[in-house]
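Problem 12. The chain below contains 603 residues. Write out its predicted structure in C-alpha cell notation.
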Amino acid sequence: MVSLKIFVAILGLSTSAFAKPPARWGSRDAVPKSTVYEKLSAPPAGWTQDKDQKLDKDATTIKLRIHLIQQDMDKFHEMALNIATPGHKLYGNHLSQHVIDAMISPKQESKDLVMKWLESVGLKEHATLSPRADSVIVETTLAKVEKLLRTEYGAFSNTKTGEKVVRTLEYSLPSILTSHVDSIQPTTFFGLRNMGSMIKDFRPNIAVPSANVLDTAAVKGCSGSSITPTCLANLYNFANSTSTSLTAGRMGIAGFLEQHPVMTDLTSFMSKYAYYANKNEKYTCELINKGTCPTTDSQSNIIEANLDVQYARAITQNIPNVYYSTAGSPPWLGSGTNTNEPYLEFLNYLLALPDAQLPNTLSISYGDDESTVPLSYATSTCNLFAQLGARGVSVLAASGDDGVGSTCQVAGKSQFTTLYPAACPWVTAVGGTTGTAPEGAWSYGGGGFSEVFGRPSYQNSTVNTWLSTDKTHTSYSPYFNASGRAYPDISAQSTNYLVYILGSAGGVSGTSASTPMVASVMQLLSSERIANGKKGLGFLNPWLYGAAQTGKGFNDVTTGKIVGCSNSPAISGAGFSAVAGWDPATGLGTPNYGTLLGISNAT
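Solution.
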C-alpha cells in the first residue's frame, strides 16, 4: 500500500481550506435563505405517484444521508488512474481507505455548517457523522425531514414491478450549504432496477441437453438451447487453466431488492455442472443494512441471485465467494421505518472494510436509465466506485437489456438512452453476445455513450478510431453523445444460461448473466496474480484498453447488432453494429482467458 506520507507528498495537498474562516450561522442566519437544490419535473419513467396512499409522517422514520462535498477529487482521480495504468510507477500500489480519506475529506467548515443547520431546527441530537466523516446521517421522522428540506414526500409505485417507494420530486437547502453538500438521499433517487427482472425469456423447467449433444457441439459443452460452465470454459479458453486449485482472493456478488440465492439449488447445480473439482464449494453471505440470506424464497426473488452465485461459484474454482445481501427495498408505507438508500449503504459498507476483507472482484447486475438517476447521486456514487478501484477492487456492471433504449425519449427529445452504473467510467461495463460459431452481438445487449460522464482518457484512442472509421452509425449520430463515456467495455454470452431454480433447471438470458461470467474470469486472473505474490488487477479499464487490447486478449465480435427504440418511430432501425475492433455493441470483444493470463502475468 502507498503510505499516507508519500501519498500527500505526491498530490501536494493544499492546506488553505483549513485556514479559511468558517461561514457564520448566527442569529441573523437562524432562518437562512433557501434554494431548490434538486428537482424532478416528473417521476422517473415507470413510476407514478399514488396520491390516495396515506402516510403517517409523524410515525414513519427515515435515515437521511447528507453527503458532503469532498476536496481534491480531481487529484484523487488522477492518482486512481495512475494506479490502474500498466507502466506507471504507481501501477498496482492500491490504497488503504484512510489514505484516500485523508486526500478527499470534506472541509471541517462543511461539517460544522451542516451541524449548525440541524441544530437550528432541533435535529442535532438525531445526527451523527459517518465513520469516514464524509456524510452526516440523520434518523428522524418523515414529518421532520419534510420541514428540514422544505419538501413533501409521497408514495410512488412502479408500474412494471409493483415496487413502492416513499420519495419526493424536489427539496431545498439553505443557500449557504449549496457549496458544501453534494447530495441528500433518500429524496429524488428511485432506485436501480434488477437487470434480471427485465429478462424477456426466462424458461422454467427446460429439458437439459444430453451429454452426447453437448460433447458433439461446435464448442464442447455448448448447445443451441443452453449455456453451461463447460461451454463457457471451452468458449473462453479457461478450460486448460494453468492452475485448477486457486484459493487466493475473494469474489464478490452484489445483491439488492430482496434477491437471495438458494444453497440447495447451488448444490444441485454444482453436482451436475461443476467444471472444476469444486462441486462441494459454497458461498458465504454478508448482511448489510439488515439484509437477509434465507434458505429458500419465491421464484421471483431468487432468479438473479441464483444465476450470479451458480456461475461465479462454478468458474472461480476454490476461491471464496461472498454474496452481499443489502436490504433497503423501500418503502414501508404507513407507519414504520422507511429504510435508507441501499446502494449508498452497500458501497460505504465495502469501503469501510479492512483491505484483507475486500473482494478482488465485484459483480453488479443492477442498473437503470441514466436519465432517471439524479446528477448528484450519479456523481457521488461513481466517485465511490473510483475509491473501490483504487483500493484494488475490479467492479463490473451489466450494460442493460434494452439495446440502445426502449422509448428513446429523454425530456421530450429523441435520443438513445444509457444505463447507470454501466456508464460510470470507474466500472467495467459488460455487454452481451449470443451464438458460438461464431459469436455475435446479442440484439438486446446495452451499449452507447453517457450523457453525464465525459469520455475517459483510457478509451480515447480506441473510441476515436471507431468514430472516424465506422460507417454503420452515421445516420444515428444525432441520437448519441459522441464525447461521452462509451460502453460496453467487454462482452460475453448472455442467452440461455442453464440455472437451477427451486430444484428445476431453467433458462436465463440477459447481461445479468454475462456480467458474473466475465467478473469470474477476471477473478481467476487476479487470484493467479495473488498466488504469485502480485496485487490483484483492481480497476480494470486502463489495462483492458491498454495491455490487454494490444496483446489481443479478446475474441473480436464482428457480427450482429444491438437494437432498440422500437417505441420511437423517429429513430427507426436504431442500433449499433458489431464491427472489427471496439464497438458500442460488444466493446473490445469477449475474453480469451489463456491469452489474458499471459498478459496479466507479464504486467
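Discussion. The two ends are 18 Å apart (CA to CA). Students who got a different answer should revisit the alignment rule from Section 12.3.
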